[in-house]
């Protein structure tokens, strides 16, 4: 079963059942293995004459226990007309081994096959789960205003044109237009924009955003099933269903390998006796031995073990890969798309520059700003207070006003202080030398005279620059940044990080559209890296969705194919390096298995190989594959 075949909308209970099923398979398999080993020791060391029938009594049940599902699967496939697959060859080879009294070999072949399947099952058991966190963002209730009274009901039951009331701290349940009230709206669930947006009557607000401060009355403009949050849910579901299903190599290989081997065995059993090159019994025995030798156990186990090593090695380094398919996809990544806020930046604001004017000093400017902003809970005000350090709350502020979307105004020690954006300075008709500073800025004026400005920036993660450099050294052809922030902020960050392309002021559906433009029809995969609920649709739509799991939203983590358990974007290049190394190891294992298998097939044709030598070689291949796969563990892969 591939990861993509597993439903991305399965429940958590489904995950629990899946884990229970795995445990229920591992324990019996371990018991069977122990009994099998003891039986071989009993047979080979003690050499008792009574072991003849005892061998069948002990080993045939073990064979059925390990191989029953494979036998049933082969039978069903034959009934459907799908004859030549690995289960058919496994069944035919082992039944032939029993027919020529090689029961231990038949059990060994089935046992090794099941162990390989167990490794593969374990490597993908933690695949996609339901996007329960995204569903949690969806508002559960709406406060419907009817004749001056409020009635709480489901948003699905509210009609277009109705009026709803949204209190401070509540989610906006439906898209609509503000009738009355002003507030600050947290739009990060939809846009990823870290700064709250000031809203006033006449402006449109979207479902899923959060009302932070004032009381709002909103006229509903869209039904719930057409609201922004519903569209995000639909985008996630449709994007995941559109992911290409990766067909495993062994299944494709078996389509050609199995009929060739079976045809070869039939030819060996029939042709030589017909041309008097030996007895039919001799060549029939060789044909049966050839089928046992040809059993793809070593090949089957070498592939999942390689991926298991990659998944385990990545987990050791704080990278959760939700299945072997995504290791292949990581190895083929040529374009990496980053969301900005929370991924390349920390989503935390800090003062980066203080520029005083006239007779003010930097210390005076930051002190005035911290005092006038002491009553505001705006993130920019908090950044200024944190930079100032000392508590400014003891200062008496008279005639304090907080002007939504503009700034604050008040009197400090009989001086009128204005702090805010360029728009506020124009409203107050204050002359100032710069309008567009090129970033998020707080201008200050004292007694209506311009005093300077404070530049505030979202903190760039410490290793963002190194992350971009590492990706370029790996041969990633294009690095793109998508953000809901404004053009100026995006441009400055793109230049700082040396990013190839960027797109600003994007809604979630815009991010998906930009991502789809960058998707390649060939094998050059596109990875998207994000952390927020708003990133979930793009994460799901990308060839490889990567979530920053340290502080990322649960929705992004549940949707992603790869989860970075720290907040370091440099781990993206590390994940790609692990994917590439894993791919090399897997192909090394395939080459090794096929080479040894081919060698023993040739020996078997000429009667120079026994079944046990072939099984022993197969076990040797499996052990070499295990040792080779463990190379992915240990020191970080760069």
From TrEMBL:
EC number: 3.6.3.3, 3.6.3.5
Membrane topology category: Multi-pass membrane protein
Listed SUPFAM superfamilies: Calcium ATPase, transduction domain A, Calcium ATPase, transmembrane domain M, HAD-like
The P-type ATPase A domain, residue ranges: 138-237
The keyword Electron transport belongs to this UniProt entry's keyword annotation: no
Cell location: Cell membrane
Top class in the EC scheme: hydrolase
Cellular compartments per GO CC: plasma membrane
Family: Belongs to the cation transport ATPase (P-type) (TC 3.A.3) family. Type IB subfamily.
Name of this chain's protein: Heavy metal-(Cd/Co/Hg/Pb/Zn)-translocating P-type ATPase
The organism of origin for this protein: Limnospira indica PCC 8005
